[in-house]
Design goal:
Layout (H helix, E strand, L loop, with lengths): L1 H12 L20 H5 L13 H5 L8 E8 L4 H11 L3 H15 L10 E4 L4 H7 L3 H13 L8 E3 L11 H8 L3 E3 L9 E9 L3 H10 L6 E10 L2
Parallel strand pairs: 1-6, 2-5, 5-6
Antiparallel strand pairs: 3-4
Helix pairs in contact: 4-5, 5-7
C-alpha cells in the first residue's frame, strides 16, 4: 500500500507515459503500454530460415542465423521507441524489448546453444555523450530470459565514425569497415556467439563486427536486433 502511494505521488510529479504512444501508463505497465505491445510489428524471422535478414549477409559474412524482433518504419511506433531509448535517456526500453524477444528466441532451435551474447559496441566518445549503449541494454534483456552471459570486453569500437543514418550502402561500408578490434579473443575461441544490435539496415556495421569476431577465433556467429529497417 505504501509502495502504491509513493508511485501515485511520483506519477504526479513525473508522469509515466508510454514510450510508443505517449499515453499514460497503468500501474502494471512498464515503459510500453499494453496497446502498443499488442500492435508491435513483429517480424517472426526467428522462425524462418533464409529470412530477409539472413539474405543480407549471403556472400558477405558467414552466420548461423539472423533475426530482428520488429519491423522499422519511419514515423511508426518502433521509430518512437528507438528514439526514446537512444535520445531520451530511456535505456530501460531496450532492456524490456530484449526480455520480450528473449521469450520468442527460446522457441527457436536456430538460436539454441549460444555461449555468449555480445552487443555491438559504441566508441568511448559516443558512450560518454549518450551515457549508455542501447544494444548492451537489449543484450541484458535477452540475457535475463535466455540465461546467457553478456560480454563487453572482447569486441571494441576503436575508431570514431560519423552517424550512418544518411549514408548510402557503399558509404556505410567504407565508414565502418576498420572500426572494430578484438581484445582477449581467446574468450570466444570456438564459441557460439549471439551478436546483438539495435537496427539492421544495410548490415554494414554488423558485417564488420561479424568478420572481426571470426578473425582467428573459429567462432560461430548468430545475429539478433531490435528492429529491421527495410530500404
Amino acid at each position: 500500500m505504501v509502495k502504491d502511494f509513493l508511485l501515485d505521488v511520483a506519477s504526479l510529479v513525473y508522469p509515466r507515459v508510454c514510450s510508443g504512444c505517449q499515453q499514460s501508463l497503468f500501474k502494471h505497465e512498464e515503459f510500453i503500454c499494453n496497446k502498443c505491445y499488442l500492435t508491435l510489428p513483429k517480424t517472426n524471422y526467428h522462425l524462418q530460415q533464409e529470412n530477409p535478414i539472413e539474405k543480407i549477409f549471403f556472400g558477405r559474412a558467414n552466420i548461423k542465423a539472423a533475426s530482428s524482433f520488429l519491423f522499422f518504419q519511419k514515423k511508426g511506433s518502433v521509430q518512437k521507441l528507438l528514439h526514446a531509448l537512444k535520445y531520451k535517456n530511456k535505456p530501460e526500453v531496450a532492456q524490456l524489448l530484449g526480455k520480450w524477444y528473449g521469450q520468442d528466441l527460446k522457441k527457436s532451435d536456430a538460436f539454441s546453444n549460444i555461449d555468449f551474447i555480445i552487443p555491438v559496441p559504441l566508441h568511448k566518445k559516443r558512450m560518454q555523450k549518450r551515457g549508455y549503449n542501447q544494444s548492451e541494454h537489449f543484450a541484458k534483456g535477452l540475457s535475463e530470459v535466455l540465461h546467457i552471459p553478456v560480454i563487453t570486453n572482447v569486441l571494441i569500437k576503436s575508431k570514431f565514425t560519423e552517424t550512418q543514418t544518411h549514408k548510402t550502402r557503399e558509404e556505410r561500408a567504407e565508414n565502418i569497415s576498420t572500426s572494430f578490434n578484438l581484445q582477449t579473443p581467446e574468450i570466444i575461441q570456438n564459441k557460439n556467439i549471439l551478436l546483438v544490435d539495435d537496427v539492421i539496415t544495410t548490415g554494414a556495421t554488423t558485417e564488420a563486427c561479424i568478420l572481426k569476431l571470426q578473425e582467428n577465433t573459429n567462432a560461430n556467429i548468430s545475429l539478433a536486433s531490435i528492429a529491421y529497417a527495410i530500404l
